[in-house]
């Protein structure tokens, strides 16, 4: 039952873009985790730039390094 929550800076995303994104993510999860299409859920969560560090970086990236499978390059200089 994979659930993917994509946090991003706010921007307009069309329904077609959302559909294609969910489809691509679902295909990758089926391939790599052996799940099925109907078990996948995907959300898009806009996060304002001013609170990105507080909402995303500290609790999710720095707060759980053991879960992180790809570190963003904007944090590489910080360790």
Automatic annotation (TrEMBL):
Q: Which InterPro entries does this one have?
A: 4-OT-like_dom (IPR004370), Tautomerase/MIF_sf (IPR014347)
- Which residue intervals define the domain 4-oxalocrotonate tautomerase-like in the entry? 2-52
Q: Which GO terms describe its molecular function?
A: isomerase activity
Q: List the protein's name.
A: Tautomerase PptA
Tell me, what's a Pfam family for it?
Answer: Tautomerase
Q: Which UniProt keywords apply?
A: Isomerase
Q: Which NCBIfam families match?
A: PRK01271.1
């Amino acid at each position: 039952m994979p659930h993917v929550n994509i946090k991003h800076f706010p921007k307009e995303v069309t329904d077609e873009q959302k559909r294609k994104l969910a489809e691509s993510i679902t295909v990758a999860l089926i391939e790599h985790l052996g799940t099925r299409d109907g078990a996948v859920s995907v959300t898009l969560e806009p996060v304002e730039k001013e609170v990105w560090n507080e909402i995303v970086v500290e609790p999710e990236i720095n707060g759980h390094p053991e879960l992180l499978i790809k570190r963003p390059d904007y944090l590489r200089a910080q360790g």
